């Protein structure tokens, strides 16, 4: 596949992500994460692993014209769709493990449903703490353990039986950071101080077929 065709395929995948998965799974969390981050007018916000930007858009509405929002993601298709939806956010290609920003460049760093997919989550946490103001805040959302989500646990069990552990592990992967004590330990090891940790309940809503 040529480079142009590759980008086209990535853009199509990102459009499908925005049309189907954002309303079904991610949309409702943007306001919850923004509330937990206590975003205020004038804040400089970084959204790590922004995808198509649902949380960045929420952040921009809250920080207003005096503030600024930067959305970072390695996915070119994701960033392209994000830029179509909100040209006012600064969309930045990059990896969480090597944030292309100065120390203390942001008042708030937010990230929803990305950390469990990073190759080096500990390094990414150190980077997020580096680029936030010493008095700032990093707010992260990860999924709970798969055992708390019966539909996914059942899917993984069926795949285990019919297709083997490798296929089932793909279903389990998003829930890899579902152990709150482990996540707290990772943050503290990275130099952070956990001020609050909670497990709110959301609802996945897929359209009927
Ligand atoms: C499940 S999506 C979540 C996207 C977005 N936060 C949302 O709520 O819709 C996970 C995102 O993590 C990004 N990602 C994966 N590895 C990453 C890394 N090492 N650094 C930054 N982003 C990464 C992917 O490109 C993808 O957009």
Describe the structure.
The protein is globular and about 55 Å long. The chain has 2 domains: 3-142 and 178-189, Vaccinia Virus protein VP39 (Rossmann fold); 144-176, no CATH class. It has helices spanning 3-36, 54-63, 76-85, 121-131, 150-162, 165-172, 180-189, and strands spanning 44-48, 68-73, 90-93, 106-112, 132-141. The protein starts with a helix and ends in a 20-residue tail after the last helix. Helix 4 (121-131) links the parallel strand 4 (106-112) and strand 5 (132-141). It is of the alpha/beta class and 209 residues long. The chain contains 7 helices and 5 strands, in the order H-E-H-E-H-E-E-H-E-H-H-H. The model has no long low-confidence stretch (mean pLDDT 95). S-adenosylmethionine (SAM) is lined by residues 22, 26, 48-51, 54-55, 73-75, 78, 95-97, 112-114, 117-119.
- Counted beta strands: 5
Given this structure, which CATH class of the largest domain is correct?
A: Alpha Beta
CATH topology of the largest domain: Rossmann fold
Q: What profile does the largest beta sheet have?
A: 5 strands, parallel
Overall outline: globular
**Fraction in helix:** 40-55%
Number of domains: 2
Q: In CATH terms, what is the architecture of the largest domain?
A: 3-Layer(aba) Sandwich
């Amino acid at each position: 596949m040529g480079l142009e065709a590759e980008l086209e395929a990535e853009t199509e995948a990102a459009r499908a992500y925005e049309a189907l998965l954002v309303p079904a799974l991610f949309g409702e969390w943007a306001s919850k994460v923004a509330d937990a981050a206590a975003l205020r007018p004038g804040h400089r916000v970084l959204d790590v692993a922004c995808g198509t930007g649902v949380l960045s858009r929420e952040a921009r509405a809250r920080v207003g014209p005096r503030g600024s929002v930067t959305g970072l993601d390695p996915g070119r298709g994701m960033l392209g769709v994000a830029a179509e939806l909100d040209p006012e956010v600064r969309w930045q290609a990059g990896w969480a493990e090597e944030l292309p920003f100065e120390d203390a460049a942001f008042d708030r760093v937010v990230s929803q449903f990305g950390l469990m997919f990073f190759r080096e989550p500990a390094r990414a946490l150190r980077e997020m703490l580096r680029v936030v103001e010493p008095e700032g805040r990093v707010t992260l959302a990860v999924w709970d353990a798969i055992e708390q989500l019966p539909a996914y646990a059942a899917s993984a069990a069926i795949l285990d039986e019919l297709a083997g552990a490798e296929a089932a592990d793909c279903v389990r992967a998003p829930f890899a950071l579902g152990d709150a004590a482990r996540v707290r330990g990772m943050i503290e090891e990275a130099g952070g101080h956990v001020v609050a940790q909670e497990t709110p309940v959301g609802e996945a809503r897929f359209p009927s077929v």
